[in-house]
TrEMBL record, chains A, B:
Molecular function GO terms recorded: hydrolase activity
Protein name: Fumarylacetoacetate hydrolase family protein
Domain Fumarylacetoacetase-like C-terminal per the UniProt entry, residue ranges: 84-324
Record-annotated Fumarylacetoacetase N-terminal domain positions: 1-79
PANTHER family: BLL6422 PROTEIN, FUMARYLACETOACETATE HYDROLASE
SUPFAM superfamilies with a match to the protein in the record: FAH (SSF56529)
InterPro entries found in the cross-reference section: FAA_hydro_N (IPR041072), Fumarylacetoacetase-like_C (IPR011234), Fumarylacetoacetase_C_sf (IPR036663)
Naturally occurring in which organism (per UniProt): Aquincola tertiaricarbonis
Keywords: Hydrolase
């Protein structure tokens, strides 16, 4: 199934079921008003939602359906119980350690790194990104993520994979000038992580077919900055799978239905794949060419992200297409 | 005004207005079903809630009111949009740097340290605390906190004080064996911070009279571990006031109504005040006596926390009284 959320001024927005080809959508207020509500009552709503989805893909569009407009969408979950973002592509972690000029953390290859992000105010796929200053080092981070059902404390990585309900595509906005200080405090990212953005469509894992395999989203993430190719790293190189990330998050506490777990920046060992964030390109430039040449984003800049199949066909999440703007005080 | 939340199985619980003397309470479903809802519609509900509060304090208890039972309470906000915990008592920060054997972070005296905690699954004042292992170094942290209204990005510390809607008393459960690794990653606390607990009663700042002054809760926090005195540090020694903490949190993003900002462990320079967490006592023992003698909590142990006025009278938040238990897998 494919879901989106119409921005309607409410905190959780209006749940939409979206057709397989992302062309049509329908609201289902009698089944569930919002995607968060559906996550919280999944056993009761899963069947009825599947029926609507099947009808939406039939030859005759059902009454009440309309053309799907990603620009009218909020994040699939405009707010979530938790937003926990890993750094599961160790290629990226190792490069970033060089960028921050710090030794690799202990156990970096065996224990996932993960930070707790704000989850009350996510951005939609085409929302402007208001930020206070270009001097903060404005950067995007292309990621994949999952939405969980309820997860018991102490879940195993294998059992945790069974808690995955939906897959997501994410732009984890970052302010690189603020990160190093917050890392040095040991308390983690806070000002360095403004509101995170999401592609319009959340999908059940079966929608990916063989591209959901080994607990990883096996798609390339095409990233363009101001219309130019920036990278298209492949999600299959994730060093920890999503079950491992969920189990890490639930080691000392349970998770409630609707929690979002992110992969961290998609990153490949092959230089030809490019990068999914500017910071990584900058450190590669430093390593390969002696100095960082690429600057961070300016107000007015745009970033576009879209997952694609190995044959280049568009993936199921739709497109993130955002512009950075100067926040008005 | 004084508010509490009856645990009724729903995610946000049932809002109660509590009498000034904490003896009686009344549900107000026609005004607001939950405290989170009241925070989100504060301008509309503040007056009607004040009317109910005034009636509750009148000589004749209004129809529908009942004896207030803290043990039936959830946290005042069982879930909140964000939970951001500072470390605003620098006496504690400086001691803890010694405990973690690390140099003080840069700008520690001028920039508050703050981590983002999980906010989807708080514990009530008398809830058992299920944890997986005594080996994790189970510890309490007695704190004060505030609930904010909507806070714009870039708010000044002075304007941020005007965003304070409610005051809280908090027990920020911590697992000390897991903290140092998570600090070393730079990504901050996650497994080291299981679900946080709250005293039953949230109060508007006017309830404290002169004990809400300079953006600080000017009360002592009495802490008992298994019935024995552990400390009673005073909230007035907070090095950053709550307006500064809120402004720090909102530097690069707005906050939505209902966010909770914590003070970090209440801590005083005078050794005679004792401590509000075991980790601090342990490092004081190490400094003053050459080694840490006090161990962390065992399953079955209890902690009790209550704010008191300078004359020893109970403060307005009620009592946190919790027992640590072994989480069942």
């Amino acid at each position: 199934m494919k879901f989106a959320t119409l921005a309607n001024g409410s905190l959780d927005g209006q749940l939409l079921v979206v057709s397989r080809d992302l062309q049509r959508a329908i609201a289902v207020p009698r089944i569930a008003p919002s995607l968060l509500d559906a996550m919280q009552r999944w056993a009761a709503v899963q069947g009825p939602l599947q029926d609507v989805y099947d009808q939406l893909d039939a030859a005759t569009a059902p009454e009440g359906s309309f053309a799907f407009d990603p620009a009218a969408c909020a994040a699939p979950l405009p707010r979530a119980p938790q937003w926990l973002d890993g750094s599961a592509f160790l290629n990226h972690s190792h490069l970033m350690d060089q960028a921050f000029n710090k030794p690799p953390p202990p156990m970096v290859d065996t224990v996932p790194m993960m930070y707790q992000g704000a989850s009350d105010d996510f951005l939609g796929p085409c929302d402007d990104v208001p930020l206070p200053s270009e001097a903060d080092g404005i950067d995007f981070e292309g990621e994949f993520g999952v939405v969980t059902g309820p997860v018991p404390m102490g879940v195993t990585p294998e059992a945790a994979l069974g808690c995955v309900r939906l897959l997501l595509q994410i732009n984890d906005w970052s302010l690189r000038a603020l990160g190093p200080h917050e890392m040095k405090t040991g308390f983690g990212f806070l000002q360095a992580k403004p509101s995170t953005a999401f592609a319009p469509v959340a999908v059940t894992p079966d929608e990916l077919g063989p591209a959901w395999r080994d607990g990883r989203v096996q798609l390339r993430l095409q990233v363009q900055w101001n219309g130019e190719r920036f990278g298209e790293p492949h999600g299959g190189e994730m060093s920890f799978h999503f079950g491992q990330l969920i189990a890490h998050a639930a080691r000392t506490r349970r998770l409630t239905a609707g929690c979002i777990i992110g992969s961290g920046t998609v990153s490949n060992a092959a230089r030809s794949a490019g990068s999914a964030c500017i910071a990584e390109r900058r450190v590669i430039e430093k390593i390969d060419q002696g100095e960082s040449r690429t600057g961070f984003m300016r107000f007015g800049d745009r970033v576009r992200m879209q997952a694609v199949l190995d044959d280049g066909q568009p993936g199921p999440f739709g497109v993130i297409d955002q512009r950075v703007v100067h926040a008005q005080p």
